[in-house]
């Protein structure tokens, strides 16, 4: 019985070490691939009225893919600014632009859910700490 316990403990230790080593070998590669971290998205509203942000996408031109970031609906008053910091996963120093979609108020004071508006940031090479600015006019 003691031999069985020692064999089981040794096997468990070997599996744990192998798991840690495999994780350590993947992490640096992933860190090199996702260099577009701590990206600031600055959104300014100059539409003449309040807007509601509801979606944020980015175009990774290096792999020619649209990617999406979840954001909660957020109202920005006219003249107001909203900033958020995100990690744009999968972008490796590629030309990228951000698309922010929003809604406007209807004359009855409710959000217009049938019409959608968006603006794109300028295209730039994405890297750690980059700022993308979007101004709604």
Mean pLDDT: 82
Shape: globular
Residue share in helix: 10-25%
Main pleated-sheet profile: 6 strands, antiparallel
Q: Using the CA coordinates, give the radius of gyration.
A: 23 Å
The secondary structure category is alpha+beta
Question: N-to-C SSE series?
Answer: HEEEEEEEEE
Q: In whole angstroms, how far apart are the ends?
A: 77 Å
Q: Based on DSSP secondary structure assignment, what is the total number of beta strands? A: 9
Weakly predicted, low-confidence segments: 21-31
Secondary structure tally, helices: 1
What oligomeric assembly is this protein in?
single chain
Approximate strand percentage: 35-45%
Describe this protein with a few key phrases.
three-stranded mixed β-sheet, 137 residues, alpha+beta, six-stranded antiparallel β-sheet
Topology overview:
Layout lengths: L1 H32 L5 E7 L5 E10 L4 E5 L4 E3 L4 E6 L8 E10 L12 E4 L3 E2 L5 E6 L1
Parallel strand pairs: 1-9
Antiparallel strand pairs: 1-5, 2-3, 2-4, 2-6, 6-7, 6-8
């Amino acid at each position: 019985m003691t031999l069985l316990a020692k064999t089981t403990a040794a096997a468990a230790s070997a599996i744990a070490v192998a798991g840690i080593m495999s994780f350590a070998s993947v992490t640096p590669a992933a860190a090199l691939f996702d260099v577009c971290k701590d990206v600031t998205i600055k959104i300014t509203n100059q539409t003449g009225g309040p807007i509601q942000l509801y979606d944020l996408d980015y175009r990774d031109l290096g792999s020619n893919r649209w990617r999406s970031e979840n954001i909660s609906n957020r109202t920005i008053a006219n003249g107001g600014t909203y900033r958020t910091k995100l990690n744009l996963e999968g972008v490796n120093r590629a030309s990228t632009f951000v698309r922010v979609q929003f809604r406007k108020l209807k004359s009855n004071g409710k959000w217009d859910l049938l019409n959608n508006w968006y603006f794109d940031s300028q295209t730039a090479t994405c890297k750690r700490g980059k700022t993308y600015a979007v101004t709604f006019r």
